[in-house]
Design brief:
Layout lengths: L2 H10 L8 E9 L7 H13 L2 E5 L14 E5 L2 E6 L4 E6 L5 E9 L5 H14 L4 E10 L9 E5 L5 H6 L3 E2 L8 H11 L3 E10 L7 H15 L6 H19 L2 H15 L10
Parallel strand pairs: 1-6, 1-7, 7-10, 8-9
Antiparallel strand pairs: 2-5, 3-4, 5-6, 8-10
Helix pairs in contact: 2-6, 3-5
Length: 276
């Protein structure tokens, strides 16, 4: 983030520290967005709360553009638009001025995680935000016909009791990390509490998964103590399930796979191949 944009964002957020409760929620496109669970959740949260956009984080220097390519719009043979990876910052405040929630809809950086994370946590420090929530999506060997799993990871031991009170099982994992883990680790050094909420999406589904996002948002709304109108998302889930069930009916191979995953799920044997 260049100095001018940094100052502009901080000026727009100057009043946040005056709120009694100050929180941040973030989600990222890319590797930690299996089933588009993270991006669907963050996009819906912003829309449902009618959060105000306050600025963009700097994108230059954080992306290998041959891996995370910009998006281009060409119309009538003319290049109309070139869009770089999203890193948009939004703010929602309650009418009673008791609660302020900063929301980041970002793209996982390919490089310079340290500098990228410092941007985010420096804003938290300026706004006196002492807790952040990170939303992620992970592929799992589970069926779409069962309740999606939602699990959590925390950066402080004292937070385990809290996530369990919301029905979230703590994650057991050892493997490659996403930007979530790095942010949570750096947040710990600054004394900022961090809770990572991961929604599990069936590994055989290749389309965006609003069902898991719905369960993530139900959990998140309880943890944030806010009301979200989820009716539009619930309608998307109904259509999503209809399309999936029709696809399964047309494929004997899928039918066998779903039955086997249902059996394993019911026996509590499903284990995600990765999560961080």
């Amino acid at each position: 983030m260049d100095k001018l944009m940094d100052e502009e964002i901080l000026k727009r957020l100057d009043h946040v520290k005056d709120f009694k409760t100050r929180l941040m929620v973030m989600g990222f496109f890319g590797w930690p967005d299996a089933g588009r669970v993270s991006s669907i959740s963050i996009e819906y949260l912003i829309s449902s709360l009618r959060a105000e956009k306050v600025g963009n984080l700097e994108t230059l220097g954080y992306y290998d553009l041959t891996s995370t390519r910009p998006l281009v719009t060409v119309s009538g043979g003319v290049l109309r638009d070139l869009r770089f990876p999203l890193n948009e910052l939004y703010l929602w405040t309650s009418e009673d001025r008791e609660k302020a929630i900063l929301i980041l809809m970002g793209s996982e950086p390919n490089i310079n995680w340290e500098k990228y994370t410092d941007q985010i946590l420096s804003i938290c420090d300026e706004c006196m935000i002492r807790r952040i929530y990170l939303i992620g999506g992970v592929l799992d060997l589970i069926p779409h016909t069962r309740k999606p799993k939602v699990r959590a990871v925390v950066n402080m031991e004292n937070l385990k009791q809290e996530i369990e009170a919301y029905g979230l099982k703590p994650i057991e994992y050892d493997g490659p990390a996403s930007i979530h883990s790095y942010i949570m680790s750096m947040a710990l050094r600054r004394g900022i509490e961090a809770i990572g909420i991961w929604g599990h999406s069936p590994s055989y589904i290749t389309i965006p998964n609003p069902k898991t996002a719905l369960y993530v948002l139900r959990t998140l709304s309880m943890m944030l103590d806010i009301k979200l109108d989820l009716r539009d998302l619930e309608k998307r889930v109904m259509e999503f399930e209809r399309e999936l069930n029709e696809a399964v009916e047309r494929s004997l191979e899928l039918q066998r796979l779903v039955r086997e995953l249902e059996r394993k799920y019911d026996e509590e044997l499903g284990t995600p191949p990765y999560i961080a």
